[in-house]
Amino acid sequence: MFNLSGKVALVTGATHGLGMAMARGLGAAGARLVINGNSSQEKIDKAMAAFQDAGFDASGYRFDVTNENEVKAAIAEIESDIAPIDILVNNAGIIRRVPLLEMPLDEWELVVKTDLTSAFIVSKAVVPRMMQRGGGKVINICSMMSELGRDSVGAYAAAKGGLKMLTRNMATEWARHNIQVNGIGPGYFATEQTRSIRVDGHPFNDFIVGRTPAGRWGNPEDLQGAAVFLASAASDFVNGQIIYVDGGILATIGKPSKE
Ligand code: GCO
User: Cα of 3 to ligand 1 centre, how many Å?
Assistant: First the structure.
């Protein structure tokens, strides 16, 4: 039931980081990969080489997930070039660490449209086609910031909290069409996005390691199991759920720093 052979998976923001790791997991389960990126063709080509070196059947498409016209054209191209999309992973996202009162409106709007609105835009282009074919899977990559706030990530947390509720509403409207919509909420992971706050000795690094029951940062590969589960027949009766892959951080208020 975890076999994805014969399925086509589109993962947005998959040229690096958590998106790339989840795509690798889906590929290892048999899915044919369609990788999206928007930074540069060079970055997409580099990612494609890595996927192909790993033996995955992967294709790369550069489009801006916040631009509805680009998304519509890209989805039509993908489904014409490759095949219908069975699994959509809305992973593309950015973060800006700025206290709310210092955050310019345009920066707020960039974070919200990239981390939240993009899932609406890409799903609107993909899901009607899934409905015509009798079903599909949508996985929205939320965050533990869908549940908790923290200084300086207000726009990100608002977007990721909204993505949690969008996931539940998508599930509500589309489950009757055999489309299961769920989310994955990563805790703190060792990626480029967190490099600056993860260096040994950085107060935040020590805080997170102490605050996480597993006592470590997540490795991107730690997300692959949840991604395969939500992309596969194993989750055919799972709707509107967010699976937190967080080392237990959301399960606890933590412990005193000095025991
Ligand atoms: C931060 C981190 C977090 C993580 C992740 C947690 O600045 O607090 O970047 O936002 O990236 O989203 O789930």
Answer: 31
The pLDDT of residue 259 is 58
Cα gap 3→234, rounded to integer Å: 9
pLDDT one-digit tens code per residue, 223-235: 999 999 999 999 9
In a domain, 52, yes or no: yes
Starting at the edge strand that comes first in sequence, how are the strands of the sheet with 8-11 ordered? 58-62, 32-37, 8-11, 87-90, 136-141, 179-186, 242-245
Note whether residue 250 is domain-resident: no
Q: Answer yes or no: is 253 within a domain.
A: no
The answer to whether 117 and 63 have CB atoms below 8 angstroms apart is: no
The total number of structural domains that make up the chain: 1
Determine the Cα–Cα distance for residues 256 and 45; give it in Å rounded to an integer. 47
Residue 234 maps to a domain: yes
Q: What is the DSSP letter of 109?
A: H
The domain in which residue 103 lies consists of: 8-245
DSSP annotation of 239: -
CA 188 – ligand 1 centroid, Å: 6
Read off the pLDDT of each residue in 130-155 and give the average, rounded to a whole number. 97
Q: Which of 140, 143, 202, 249 to mutate to test the pocket of ligand 1 (most atoms within 8 A of CB)?
A: 143
Summarised one tens digit per residue, pLDDT across range 60-92 is: 999 999 999 999 999 999 999 999 999 999 999
Q: What is the CATH number of the domain that holds 178?
A: 3.40.50.720
Q: The pTM is what? A: 0.97
* Residue pair 133/148 in contact by the 8 Å Cβ criterion: no
